[in-house]
Description:
Blueprint: H1 2-13, H2 19-34, H3 41-122, H4 126-214
Helix pairs in contact: 2-3
Pfam families: THOC7 (PF05615)
Protein name: Tho complex subunit 7
Keywords: Coiled coil, Nucleus
Amino acid sequence: xxxxxxxxxxxxxxxxxxxxxxxxxxxGCLRLLRNANTVSKAEAVKALRLMDSLELSMRKQRExxxxxxxxxxxxxxxxxxxxxxxxxxxxxMAQAKADLAAARLVRKNRKExxxxxxxxxxxxxxxxxxxxxxxxxxxxxxxQERQQQLEARxxxxxxxxxxxxxxxxxxxxxxxxxxxELSNDAxxxxxxxxxxxxxxxxxxxxxxxxxxxxx
Length: 215
């Protein structure tokens, strides 16, 4: 039985040409059946088997073609799904990049905020700043009053100095006038002193002559 099956397979496959070999065998059987002298039941059964085999092969090929079409459609649908998933993945990647950029910006802003908070904490409070400002304003008013007092004193001293300069100028003028008067009066005094000396000499001579006369 097994040998018969192998023989049928070899006869059907022939030299490996497949369906063409079967068609050739079927064509030979049909030729024999058309000839009345060579008609036999075995050839008819053989022809029917070949026709059934070819029909089964055609059905298989049709099923294979339909299955191939279905697989092609499935592959196309799968390719569409893959393309959609790729597009979705790209959108997710773009969104992830945007989220990453936003996260970096938030992180940068947080660092700057923390730095500003540290700087603000290092600065004095508003109440302390207001108190220092009031103290500075009071000190400024005090300094302005002191400046006005110093300017008043300086103006008074300038007036005193101006008056002293006037007095010194008048005193120098007075001294110059006295020097001029003294220089003009000096020759007159010398002449008067000389005349007084001559008078004394004359009186002394008279006294000596009188003394001699008395002797």
